[in-house]
Amino acid sequence: MEYFKKILRFAKPYRKYGYLNIFFNILYALFSALSFAALIPMLDVLFTPEKKVLKEPVYTDLGHLKDYLQEYISYRVTAYSGDDQMKGLILVIGLVLVLFLLKNLFNYLAMYFITFLRNGVLKDIRNSMYKKIVNLPISFYSEKRKGDVIARITSDVLEIQHSFLSILELIVREPLTIVFTILIMFGISTKLTLFVFIFIPVAGMIISRIGKSLKKKSDKVQKEQGELLSIVEETLGGLRVIKAFNSESRFYKAFSNSTLRFFQFSNKLLNRQNLASPTGEFLGILVIGVLLWFGGKMVLVEKTLDAASFIAYMGLAYNILTPAKAISKASFGVKKGNAAAERVLEILETENPIVEKPTAITKDAFTEGITIENVSFKYQDEYVLKNFNLQVPKGHTVALVGQSGSGKSTIANLVTRFYDVNEGEIKIDGIPIKDFSKKSLRGLMGLVTQDSILFNDTVKNNIALGKENATEEEVIAAAKIANAHEFISELPDGYNTNIGDSGNKLSGGQKQRLSIARAVLKNPPIMILDEATSALDTESERLVQDALEKMMQNRTSIVIAHRLSTIQNANSIVVLQRGEIVEQGSHQELLATNGVYKKLVTMQSFEP
């Protein structure tokens, strides 16, 4: 129930619907019991004429309330029908219809109001999960498969709605229906009702044994669903490579193995769950059978119970079966829902290691420069950067070069605070970046990465991502600086053309120029370029490089470069090896030293 309580906190904004549901469920439970109890005096009047009440009874005290109500209804039926028994029958039918109509009306109203609570909780859980997914650091997703995260926000949340939140419908209605029914059963025959209670705990124990393993089986189903979605997500993302390497059969085998496991786990889970309903129903009918024997004996042999009361009593006993089955089913739902809630809460309760201070400051201007002081950092066990120091004065372009794995991209990740340093400090204008709010820090920066990350939207909306309410003129001006206006104008709908999933309707160079236009429109004082031209052909590189040079004018830039031809005009070039600076200086100075940089230039067949 611990998970249920945690999920229930999402119901607070919708508690008024919960109260209305409780109110109408109380009425439903009351009328559910009364609809059967009302049959007793009517059956007496219709089938036992000697029990007709000709004189209006007088109310004495609460202890005789049951006898008073029974006699009063008998009196009213007698007074209405007189000697015509058909009149009494019509009254009986009319009263029963009214009671059942009210019972079902209150049931509908109870379900009507709980719908707003259930769907509201579902909406808020999904919103909270999405907010958490966006806020969690990039390092979190290096350990989690995207498909598994998608499964948690979709199928697991739905499972919570079907299991946990269905209990909210039953939590008042079914127990109260049972309570009211049992009270009336006690009123009819205490002896018979106590006899019933011998069988209820036995039935409960049998049903609870069935449900014990449901959480474990449900957990396997949900984990396998995450695995299945991960394979689909990877397949769609790498379809070009899968086809090129004729690996369709390999991925199909992995997918079919996952669906086979899902099939087997689901069968075990559902068959165990399906066992609950027939078992519960059989046990209920068994109780009814025993009641018929014991109660029939009281009517026919002992003469301690009249026939009308016994018929109504059997109706009430059967009336307990439906809510008892519903409660039994809901208890299985809780066990199933526990596994889903655990997976959802694992995301919601994950601590974000990139913590923002309560006193975090907002900084809009950039005046002095960036300082990286004695920074050491590791992703796992081995340090990627060791005692790293770097000054980037305002207005300067600093290029980071080196072989793959030397720590170049890590510096971009640390300056933008996608990761926090293990040792040392990064400062902007002399203030540690941990003192800034994350929004303020990243507001000072523009990022152009090697992989052009674009979204399934229009050209205009992709460029305007970093600036809400950007005008069309601003978008066009940014596109012109990025050398993108010409090809955008040739698209079918110009700036309103949808570029497809990940911008796949465009070429690599076009996608990169859109990324640059996006950074230009944001107009940040600090620009970080992470190998922005390394994936491009020569013609595209020339256009993109021209766009980058226009963009970097009068800005502070950190350029991570693979192609050394693109950074010869940088104020300072920093050469990295295994997380440490081995050389630093201008292009000409580094060539003159005839060291690592000269070797890299020679390897790329670049002539200065």
UniProtKB/TrEMBL annotation:
<dbReference type="GO" id="GO:0015421">
    <property type="term" value="F:ABC-type oligopeptide transporter activity"/>
</dbReference>
<dbReference type="GO" id="GO:0005524">
    <property type="term" value="F:ATP binding"/>
</dbReference>
<dbReference type="InterPro" id="IPR039421">
    <property type="entry name" value="Type_1_exporter"/>
</dbReference>
<keyword id="KW-0067">ATP-binding</keyword>
<keyword id="KW-0812">Transmembrane</keyword>
<dbReference type="InterPro" id="IPR027417">
    <property type="entry name" value="P-loop_NTPase"/>
</dbReference>
<keyword id="KW-1133">Transmembrane helix</keyword>
<keyword id="KW-0813">Transport</keyword>
<dbReference type="InterPro" id="IPR011527">
    <property type="entry name" value="ABC1_TM_dom"/>
</dbReference>
<dbReference type="GO" id="GO:0016887">
    <property type="term" value="F:ATP hydrolysis activity"/>
</dbReference>
<dbReference type="Pfam" id="PF00005">
    <property type="entry name" value="ABC_tran"/>
</dbReference>
<dbReference type="GO" id="GO:0005886">
    <property type="term" value="C:plasma membrane"/>
</dbReference>
<dbReference type="InterPro" id="IPR017871">
    <property type="entry name" value="ABC_transporter-like_CS"/>
</dbReference>
<protein>
    <submittedName>
        <fullName>ATP-binding cassette, subfamily B, MsbA</fullName>
    </submittedName>
</protein>
<dbReference type="Pfam" id="PF00664">
    <property type="entry name" value="ABC_membrane"/>
</dbReference>
<feature type="domain" description="ABC transmembrane type-1">
    <location>
        <begin position="22"/>
        <end position="328"/>
    </location>
</feature>
<dbReference type="InterPro" id="IPR003439">
    <property type="entry name" value="ABC_transporter-like_ATP-bd"/>
</dbReference>
<keyword id="KW-0547">Nucleotide-binding</keyword>
<feature type="transmembrane region" description="Helical">
    <location>
        <begin position="20"/>
        <end position="43"/>
    </location>
</feature>
<dbReference type="InterPro" id="IPR036640">
    <property type="entry name" value="ABC1_TM_sf"/>
</dbReference>
<keyword id="KW-0472">Membrane</keyword>
<feature type="transmembrane region" description="Helical">
    <location>
        <begin position="89"/>
        <end position="117"/>
    </location>
</feature>
<feature type="domain" description="ABC transporter">
    <location>
        <begin position="370"/>
        <end position="603"/>
    </location>
</feature>
<dbReference type="InterPro" id="IPR003593">
    <property type="entry name" value="AAA+_ATPase"/>
</dbReference>
